[in-house]
Amino acid sequence: MTSPNPGLCGRCAWVRRVGNRRGSTFFMCGLASVDGRYRRYPALPVLTCAGFEPEVDSDADHEDDDGIDTPLTPH
Ligand code: SF4
């Protein structure tokens, strides 16, 4: 079974993906549990959302590696 295009929810830090036994994936808004202006299960695709926060890419949080090892030396 295919899931609908989630729009912004597909790359939002607040989203929780909930699967069922039939293979469907639902997109639950975690912000809805702390802010009543948001729906727990928004109508998809979400095209604009004031609460949208981009997911943090765990691979992108390292600094540029220039190949030069700079050891920390205590003084
Ligand atoms: S804050 Fe908006 S974009 Fe993010 S999961 Fe909730 S409804 Fe989707």
Give a quick account of the main beta sheet: strands, pairing sense, barrel closure. Answer: 2 strands, antiparallel
- Approximate shape: globular
* Helix residue percentage: under 10%
pLDDT averaged over residues: 84
Number of helical elements: 0
Can you list the ligands bound to this structure? iron/sulfur cluster
> Unreliable stretches, pLDDT < 50, 5 or more residues?
none
Our measurement of the CA-to-CA distance between the termini, rounded to an integer number of angstroms, reads 62 Å
What Rg is obtained from the alpha carbons, in whole angstroms?
Answer: 19 Å
Strand order of the largest sheet: 1-2
Order of helical and strand elements? EE
Number of strands: 2
Strand coverage percent: 5-15%
Structural class: mainly beta
Summarize the structure in words:
0% of the residues lie in helices and 13% in strands. The protein has 75 residues and is mainly beta. It has a domain at 8-55. A two-stranded antiparallel ribbon has the order 1-2. The N and C termini lie far apart (62 Å). The mean pLDDT is 84. Residues 8-9, 12, 14-15, 29, 31, 38, 42, 46, 49, 51-52 line the site of iron/sulfur cluster.
How would you summarize what this structure contains?
By secondary structure, the protein is mainly beta. The protein has strands at 15-19, 25-29. 0% of the residues lie in helices and 13% in strands.
